[in-house]
Amino acid sequence: MLLKADLHLHQEWSPRLDRVLARRHSRVPFDWKTWRETLTTQVPPGVARLQRLSRVFPAPAEADTDDAFVERVTDALEESAAAGSCYTELRFGHDTVMRPVFMPLFRQAEEKVAAKYPGFRAEAVASLLLWQEPERLDAAIAECRRAAAEGLAGVDLLNVPYSSEADWQTGRKVVDAATDAGLGVTVHAGEFSSANIAAVACMDGVTRIGHATHAPTDPWLLELLAARGITIEVCLTANLILGAVPTLADHPLRRFLDANIPVALGTDNPIQFGTTIDHEYTLASRLGLSESDLSRLTRNAIDAAFTTPDRKTALRADVDAAPASVLTPHVAATVESGDLCSPGV
Ligand SMILES: [Zn+2]
């Protein structure tokens, strides 16, 4: 099985906690399939759909005890490993980085999954909202810098306005503070318009952009991304469901590769979008990517990963040693049935 990697995965704290609690109490979890149907038929594409992601909280924050936290992080990483990922970065917003012993709890979960899937590695990334009150943002940055010493790998920045040019003054300070602490930096930008891509790509310290789906509307942006060596985290299912592209065939993934821009794949919000990293690779193959192209995506992910040099060396050795079969049996069956957009997970 081709080894995969997921560089763009949000913790989905409440949906994931709901899944864990539902399993614990033998009840049915929230019905995201119906939620998706409503979203895609009743909400206009773009930011309006994106905002709906943070409107449903099927499990309460009070239930997120340390045990439940480890269980839900294990659930997210195990789902990724089971879908063929050898390396997964999990993003934590919702002030999770402020949680006492956050990194030791994360490592507990990683170890549990690695015990079942030998060679699997994971890192934690903190999502920071640049529009938060300065005191709260400063506290989160201070906590990220402290957690960096315990193994936090990077930060993920989000800014508003998302679809028109934003002010990046605070963003630049956060990038400097993060890189000074040895943290990698990725930024969400360019999902529903080409706004902010140039500003973000030009910030020293930013090595990855989440989405950048609209970069090809301006060929200069593709040249800029290539020249800056920015890796694009492409989340195909997310782009389809939120309407960043009208159809899979319209997705610019191949244009990125043709422009010598490294691309890695991500699941974004896999519970809410009903996807796995396996399914994302399958969609990429449907865009005409060959086995070696798909393997390149995994290598790109490792090159751009916010993990240690030693872990990267080990991951590259594992990818080199893996048999070159692209799809797991489950996905191969899905391809044959032609039911590519309904992974049913
Ligand atoms: Zn995202």
From TrEMBL:
Please provide an example of a Pfam family that matches this protein in its UniProt record. Answer: A_deaminase
- Which enzyme type, at the first EC level? hydrolase
| Enzyme Commission number(s) of this protein | 3.5.4.4
Signal sequence interval, chain numbering: none
Q: Which InterPro entries does its entry note?
A: A_deaminase_dom, Ado/ade_deaminase, Metal_Hydrolase
Q: Which UniProt keywords apply?
A: Hydrolase, Metal-binding, Zinc
Coiled-coil regions listed in the entry: none
| Molecular function in Gene Ontology | adenosine deaminase activity; metal ion binding
Question: Which GO BP terms sit in this record?
Answer: adenosine catabolic process; hypoxanthine salvage; inosine biosynthetic process
Q: Which GO terms describe its cellular component?
A: cytosol
Q: Does the keyword Transmembrane helix apply?
A: no
Instruction: Show where the Adenosine deaminase domain sits.
Output: 4-321
User: Which cofactors are named for this entry?
Assistant: Zn(2+)
Q: Return the similarity comment.
A: Belongs to the metallo-dependent hydrolases superfamily. Adenosine and AMP deaminases family.
Name this protein carries in UniProt: adenosine deaminase
